[in-house]
Amino acid sequence: MRKILLPLAMAGTLALGGCAAYGGNGGLLGGILGNDRYDDDRYGYDGGDDFEQAAVRACGREASRYGRIRIDDVDRPSSDLVRVRGRIDVRSSDRDQFNCVFRSDGRIVEFRRY
């Protein structure tokens, strides 16, 4: 029984070490462990004020659940809303775009793939 535990422990250490280093800004586990720094230009957007950047980060995180993304457009339909539009890199062109509306209280109030 003991002979199996050492190889399993070493394999687990290597696997977690690779995950922690993946991703650049704090790694894949960086956001989970508290190092939640994002580089907004990784989504293809690097402008705007703090509110727009927060919208890009939040909408980017939500859209990236479906694949690698690129932000195409950011606009502000009202003083307390930001609309973020972009593309998701998926195998088919069906539902490869998204529209996200971010509110000034830090919540996504609409997220649609089309």
Walkthrough of the structure:
This protein is of the alpha+beta class and 114 residues long. The chain contains 2 helices and 4 strands. The radius of gyration is 18 Å and the shape is elongated. Residues 1-20 form the signal peptide.
Structural class: alpha+beta
Determine the mean pLDDT.
Answer: 76
Helical run tally: 2
Strand content: 25-35%
Biggest sheet, spatial arrangement of strands: 1-2-3-4
- Coarse shape: elongated
Uncertain spans: 18-40
Signal peptide: 1-20
Keywords: Signal
Protein name: Lipoprotein
Q: What is the topological layout?
A:
Blueprint: H1 2-21, H2 50-63, E1 68-78, E2 81-89, E3 97-103, E4 108-113
Antiparallel strand pairs: 1-2, 2-3, 3-4
Summarize the structure.
The chain has 114 residues and is of the alpha+beta class. The protein is 30% helix and 29% strand. The model is unreliable at 18-40 (pLDDT under 50).
